[in-house]
Every structure is written in structure tokens, then in C-alpha cells.
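Obj.: predict assembly geometry.
Materials: sequence records (below).
Method: joint structure prediction, all chains together.
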Amino acid sequence: MSQPVLVAKNLTKRYGKNTIFQNISLTVQERETIVIVGPSGTGKSTLLRCLNLLTHAEEGQIWLDGVEITAKGYNEDRARQQIGMVFQNFLLFNHLTALENVILGLRRVKKLSHEEARLRATRELERVGLADRSGHYPGQLSGGQQQRVGIARALALEPRVMLFDEPTSALDPELIGEVLEVMKQLALDGTTMLMVTHEMGFAREVANRMIFLEKGGILEEGTPEDLFERPQNERTHQFLSKIGDLHGKKASKA
Amino acid sequence: MSAWLTLFSNALPALLDGALITLQLTGVGLVMGLALGLLAGLGRVYGNRPLRWLSVAYIELFRGTPLLVQLFLIYYGLPGIGITFSRMDAAFLALGVNSGAYQAEYLRGALQSVGQGQMLAGRAIGLSRWQTIFYVILPQALRLVIPSWANEPVALLKSSAVAFLVAVPELMARAKSVAAQTYNPIGAYLAAAVVYLVVVFLLDQFMKYLERRTRIPGLDAEGTRA
Amino acid sequence: MLLEFFQYIAEGAAITVAVTLVALPLGLVIGLLLALVHVYGGKWLSGLMTAYSVVLRGIPPMVLLFILYFVFSGSIDLSPFLAGSLALGVISSAYQLEILRGAILSVSGGQMLAARAIGLTRLQAIRHVVLPQALRLAIPPWANEASIVLKDSSLVYAIGVAEILRRAQQLSAASQQPFLAFGSAALIYFVLVFSTNRLLDLLERRTRIPANPYA
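Observations (raw C-alpha cells):
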């Protein structure tokens, strides 16, 4: 087995007197899709933001392709140029069209020429099914379309790993499907993905591994079958069956 | 009434000459204020500690004191410590520095309403802090600031009237000499008032036109969907 | 020596404050009345109010000050102090009209409906339901106007009133220390404006309605 893409060891995050999570360690192999689940407020989003250094964990280390990105003196922008992130509330650049949203990173970060950037951006938008909307502004797109542009924007930079922070939680139910479709295809294409989501049906179908985060720590981790069929913790079973009822396939009884 | 109309038409050429100077004062003050406002606004929101302090001090001092006092300080006061300006330069400077403080505040409001999310999104694709400010936040902030900024040219035009107190020959000063010549102060200043009203109206219309031209569909004051 | 300097100019502050204390309330009374007329007075009257507002706000305060000063002192023989203060009050009334109109309009729709629905007359609804909320909503922009009037009071320098700036100028001529003189004037104004803003902040907090969606 080759070197893992992303390794995190003993990450601890505190905010004032509260500990958000502690001693979280995880490894992401190439082409893996890992889904993180857990109750709200357990710091799942914060964990993702620590991984691409948008936030800093108080303790712990992170390696990207074997390079420690939490080391002193390491240029954080470089890490973020190799890690893609998709946000719950899309956060598209409102003053730019869909195409320009994707072009910006290609021009300013990858330093491509305007023509090359345009070609690549158009390809990415085609990949998420939005080539015909490239001239639209975020305000003119539906939530599902905006999120797909967000995915294209992150993908265009050809990151080593894609982080998804509850990508469908802010969407109307009927728009969730189109985004999940895109993400499913990404997983099938071999994209390395780490995702926080409540979409259990998706997790069962697509994830290689699942991590259940609760009360600031990893309660259980394993394959989807492990967690859904043979959970080692009552709490895991409890959580998954409740959420499963809401969002799709039911967990079978343990 | 007809007597006043006669006065008005006789005085008009002189008044229009003065109006030209008024527009000059407004233009220079606006541009200077734009540059200062940009620096101080950015410095206030994104600068390091010393830069922030400097920006706050500048903004608070120049919004917290009357323009007239600032003008006198520059034109009469500075020579006391060896810095002399001509009356025109003093007027330009006072108007520019004063306007800059207000423009900085407008920009600050706009920068803050663009929202943290845009900074996050910019950093997330690997842009540095200043790249994000320059390519993502500032372009949006400059669009958002237009409605409140659009008042500034008109406000500057009106405040330029104080320049007559340092004998700058703008519109108000011309009205004063018309008043002296005709022994009809009320009539003379009414004539000036009419010219001001017309210029203000035209300027206002122009600002509204600019606002419409630069609108981005769906981008309103919260940077969210309209 | 420095102290006497400061003292002399500071006495002008009393005049400056006095001008503001005449102009601001005058502007409020007129502005409030006209705002109510604008919102509740029907098409023709609101058109008139709009004209009033547009004209008075479209002319530099300096020009209006001169016009009104000559009108007031010519017809009623008022002192420059009174003529100037009244003039500033009239000018401010146009800006306060806009502020109060905006606040009343924000509150009026739904609240007026609810008030009429329980049987209050229009006048009662305005007095007991709309105004109490509108006035609180108006405090922040009004505080801004208050500090503008305070700063604009320096304009009465031009009609000879012995406020801060005029004193600074006299002192500058007498002492040959222009930078100190005008610098002190600026400082005193700054203190006045700063204190006024803090005071009005306090007022806003004291009168705030808990968790009110309008204010």
C-alpha cells in the first residue's frame, strides 16, 4: 500500500474553556471515500477546517503526502492549494459568474493563462452538468446548482483530497439528489474524499469507511456494513437508526 | 419676482464661473477622498495593529470635527509650523482629507457585510489573505458600497461652499460679490441656491445611473440571493 | 499661558452648545410634524413635504444659513446668534424629516393595522403604537444628525457669532500662534462631538425595547 494522502494524529481543538474534540487521529488513503457522521455540535465541521488549516488545532499534527503541514514555517496556502473544500452554504464568489468562480483559482493559484483556465473551467462545469449555466451569477442559480459550481471550483485545482462539509444540508430536499449524483460519480472516478454528512443512504452506498464522532472523540469506525449491521456501541446503533429513518435506508436491527 | 429674475440672469455668468470652481473642488476632493478612504478603510478592517490604530485615529478625528475648522487649521494653522498651502490647495486638501474619513467608514461597512464566508472560500482554494481581499472581497465590497457612497459627491459639493471663507472664488463667493454689488443679499444667495439645486439634481441623476449600471444580479446588501 | 488659551476658546464652546441646543430641538419639532404629515397626510401634502425636503437638502447649509439669516434679521431684527440657530434648525428639520419618515414607515404598516383592529382611532394609533416604536428606531440615525448639527454650528462663524472658531481666530491673531489656536479649536470640537455620541449611545441603550424586531 502506498503512502496515505492525509494523516492526522491526536488533533485537539479547544475554544476558550470548551474542548471541541480531542485526540482525533485518522488516515485517508488514495481513492478512499470516508464519511464522518455524528450528532450536531460535535465539531465535525471544525475538524474538517483543521484539516485544511482554515482553523488551527491546539494540539496534534497533520501530514499531506508525507509532508507535515502543521510544522512551523510551512506555507499554509500551499496546503490549501492541494486540498479542496466544499461548504455547507456554498460560499460562491458572488461577484463572479459560475465560470469565473472556477477560473479564479486556476488563474491566481495555478497561474494558468486565461485561455487554459477557461478551457479547464468549462470542462469542470461540464463534469458537474452546468456547462449551460456558466454565464450565470450565483444569485441566479438554485441551491443545488450553486453547490455543484462549488464542487467544480474545488475540483478544478486537482486537489489531492476533497473535503465536503455537510454539502447538502442547506438544500431543499428536491435539490439534494443532483448534488449527491455528482458526488457519487466522483467517488466512482476514484477521487479521494472525506465527507461530513447526514445522508445515510449515500454513506452506505458509496463510503469505503465511516467514522462516528461523538462527544469530542471517535466512538467507532469501520466499513458501512460494520457500523450499520454490527455496531459495537449501542450509541452508534441508536444514532444511525434515527438518522437513517429520516434520510433514507434504515439500519438493520443489531 | 421679475426683479429677481433680472438679477438672476445678470448674475448667472459669474455664478456659473463659480460653479465650475465648485465642481473642481468637488472632483479633486472626491478623488483624494477615494484614495484615502480605500487605504483607511482597508487598514481599519484588515490592517495590523499599528495600521488599524492609524486608520481609526484618522477616521475619528476627521469625522469628529467640523470641515470648516479643518480648513482653517490647514490654511491658517499649518503656516504656524512652517507648512503653507495656497487657498486652492488648502481647500482641496481639507475637502479630500475630510471626505476620505467618511468614505473609509462607508467602505468599512461594505467590507464587513461581504462576510467572513467569502474570506473562507478564498483561502480554501489556496489564495493568500491579501489575494482574497483583492480578488474576492474588495470587488464585492466596492459594489455594495455604491448606494451609501453615492451620497458622497453631493455631500462634498454642498460642503465645498465653506471654501469661500478662505476666499476661494467658488459659487458661494461669487454670490457674495453679487450681493455686494446689487445690495440684495437675499436675492443673490437665492440665485446661488438655484444653481446649487440644479447641479445637485444633475449629479444625483448621474449617481443613480451609475448605480444601475454596476448592479450585479442577485447581489444585494447581504451578499446573498436577492 | 496655554491654559488661558484653552480657556478662552473653551468659552466659545458654551455658545456652540447653545446654538446646537436651539437648532436641534427646533429641527425635531418641525421635522416630526412634517414627517407625520408626509406619511399620513395624503398625496398632495406629501408631495409638498417632498419638495420641502428636496429643496432644503439640495442647497448647501452655508447658503441656506445666509439666506435665512438675512430674512430673519431683516424682518424681525434678531441677533446673529438667534438668527443663525433658527436657520440651522430649519435646515436640520429637512434631514430629520427624512429620518423620522423612514422610521415611521418601517413601523407603520403592520402596527397600524393591529392598532386599528382593536378599535383605536388613527390619531391614537399614531400616538400610542407607531410613534413610541418609530422614535426609538430613529435614535441611531438621529444621533448622527445631532453630531452633524453640532459640527455645522461652526458655520455661524460666518455671520459673526463668537463661538469656538471665531475665538480661535481672534486668539490666533493676538498670539501669533495659529497652529495652537486652531488645533485647540479642533480638539474642543472633537471632545464635544465624542461626548455627544457617547451620550446618545447611552440613550439608545436605555430606551431599547427587549428583543424588538424593529429596533
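Conclusions so far: The radius of gyration of chain A is 18 Å.
To do: check interface contacts against the pulldown list.
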